[in-house]
Amino acid sequence: MSQISQTGTASFTAQETAGQTGTNDSFSSVDTDSFMKLLISELQNQDPLNPTDNAEMIQQISQIREIGATDQLTQTLSNLSNSQELVTASGLIGRTVQGLADDASPVDGVVDRITVETSDDNNSRSVKVHVGEKTMEIKNIREIQTG
């Protein structure tokens, strides 16, 4: 790759990589937008007498597509996991369960309903089972009994 000159974009790249380790795993936190900003900065600041090689540019575009595909796959698997959790919880209605309630107290009884709660803070959702007046997340169930 061509070298980026010491302009305002250099401070961008320093801020983006601050706190990341020198291993290959540090690139796992780079999203498509960050990668595009870096690529555009490189193109804007490349040496006009020695431009970026076409093969190198194609490789970078390929990396952008891989990042986008990985993001999409992660989202799809997350949606599938959420759906599976809901199906599993709905199968517990009428069954006796034991586990820990949201207030960390023990719960033992028949599941009478399930709910899905969403959090606006981190854009997540959790499936909860209700045993009488107690509520617990599906991951806190320790034992499931028939009838």
TrEMBL record:
Source domain of life: Bacteria
Keywords of this entry = Bacterial flagellum biogenesis, Cell projection, Cilium, Flagellum
Give the span(s) annotated as Disordered: 1-28
Function of the molecule:
Required for flagellar hook formation. May act as a scaffolding protein.
Family (UniProt):
Belongs to the FlgD family.
Q: What name does the UniProt record give this protein?
A: Basal-body rod modification protein FlgD
Can you name the source organism?
A: Novipirellula rosea
Name the lineage.
Bacteria, Pseudomonadati, Planctomycetota, Planctomycetia, Pirellulales
